[in-house]
Design brief:
Layout (H helix, E strand, L loop, with lengths): L2 H8 L2 E6 L13 H16 L3 E6 L2 H6 L11 H24 L5 E6 L1 H5 L1 H16 L3 E6 L13 H11 L4 E6 L4 E2 L10 E2 L1 E2 L21 H11 L3 E5 L3 H5 L6 E3 L8 H8 L5 E5 L1 H9 L9 E6 L6 E5 L5 E6 L15 H8 L13 E4 L4 E3 L4
Parallel strand pairs: 1-2, 1-5, 2-4, 3-4, 5-9, 8-10, 11-13
Antiparallel strand pairs: 6-7, 9-10, 11-12, 13-14, 14-15, 15-16
Length: 378
């Protein structure tokens, strides 16, 4: 057994994610047998002394049948309605299934917007930790009933990776409708299974497919999730869940790529969309990107979009390239009057409440396409 596989076997706290296709019938209704089989595996992990955080897709898919829908609806409002119907059905089924082992579950619904607010982020972290301390199995899902296009995680692969940071998990298991990552469409005879991914070079030339019929994720999101997690990740199908947790050589094993950065910065980089843009002069770009300084009004030359204080916004170089993202301290309408001014001048002319950064360095993440860097650490 490799050292990384052994690390998964010995992992004390594991995040397990199951996609919609692993939990529902082709008609979109909950598959009780599939859920019971997966719960059997998770309960065995608990009996072995592990802490399990279960990230479950399936709320929208579970609501399709009761609403008379044959496929995932394209519009957000109907998706939210399906999630409202399906989430209760899904959690009720988990409650019943885990009860066979004397285990209780706790539902945790998250939105990316919740996680970007410092107080909300800490509340979610405390809730998950307390559930685990009380012996409860947290069932985590995106809060599809209220999430909008602008504040969605986009898929539960990414959510699972981010939750692994939130609870400081030791490993992540992503359960999909395919047993591994392949070099192309698994149905093609020339596609081969990739047993391990140690770095970006192992992904060169690989065709990553799109989303499934009832879910939102594809191989792209799973590869990204593995990169985000910062711990060993196994991608396989639900039937191989027990083998994956046992460290057996199945599925695709992703080696951790880097030291874990701040959880909040990961949420900011990977679970948000900029609600506007701030354009900087070259000096401000250097201060923010290279010297990791806060963004001050003096360095801002332009503002785009309609956002409010606390929203995530993209920070751009003079040529328009996005170099960072941060939580802004002002409404979009306030910033034009502040641009090019020093904080001292603003405090003297407009009042002491204006002696603050446009974005504080603890709420800034540098976006360089491959890594997540920043000042904050939680």
């Amino acid at each position: 057994m490799s050292d990384i596989r052994e690390a998964i076997l010995k992992a004390r706290r594991v995040v397990v994610k199951a996609g919609s296709s692993s939990l529902t019938t082709p008609q979109g209704t909950i598959d009780a047998d599939r859920i019971d089989a997966l719960v059997d595996v998770l309960a065995a992990g608990r009996a072995a002394g592990r802490e399990i955080v279960f990230v479950s897709s399936g709320a929208i898919a579970a609501g399709l049948g009761p609403l008379g829908l044959t496929r995932r609806p394209p519009d957000l409002a109907t998706q939210q309605a399906a999630a409202s119907v399906g989430q209760g059905l899904l959690v009720a089924r988990y409650t019943s299934s885990f009860a066979r082992y004397g285990l209780r579950v706790g539902q945790v619904l998250l939105t990316a917007d919740d996680m970007m607010r410092r107080a909300h982020h800490r509340n979610a972290q405390r809730t998950l930790e307390q559930l685990l301390a009380l012996g409860i199995v947290p069932i985590v899902n995106e809060n599809d009933t209220v999430a909008t296009d602008e504040i969605r995680f986009g898929d539960n692969d990414r959510l699972a990776a981010l939750v692994s940071h939130l609870v400081r998990a030791d490993a992540v298991v992503l359960l999909s409708d395919v047993d591994s990552l392949y070099t192309g469409d698994p149905a093609r005879p020339d596609s081969r299974r990739i047993a391990e991914v140690r770095g970006p070079e192992d992904l060169a030339g690989i065709e990553l497919g799109g989303s499934g019929r009832v879910g939102t994720g594809g191989m792209v999101t799973k590869v990204e999730a593995a990169r985000i997690a910062g711990v060993p990740v196994v991608l396989t199908n639900a039937a191989s869940a027990a083998a994956a947790l046992a460290g057996e050589p199945i599925g695709t094993l992703f080696h951790p790529q880097s030291r874990r950065p701040s959880t909040r910065l990961l949420w900011l980089a990977h679970a948000t969309t900029g609600q506007g843009r701030l354009v900087l002069d070259t000096g401000a770009v250097d201060a923010v990107v290279r010297r990791r300084k806060s963004l001050l009004p003096a360095g801002v030359t332009g503002v785009e979009g309609d956002f409010t204080a606390g929203d995530p916004v993209d920070v751009c170089a003079p040529d328009g390239d996005v170099v960072a993202r941060g939580l802004v301290n002002y409404d979009a309408g306030e910033i034009p009057d502040l641009m090019g001014r020093s904080t001292r001048w603003l405090a003297r002319e407009l009042g002491p409440e204006y002696e603050r950064e446009i974005i504080h360095r603890d709420d800034l993440v540098i976006l360089d396409g491959r890594s997540t860097k920043g000042q904050g650490d939680e």
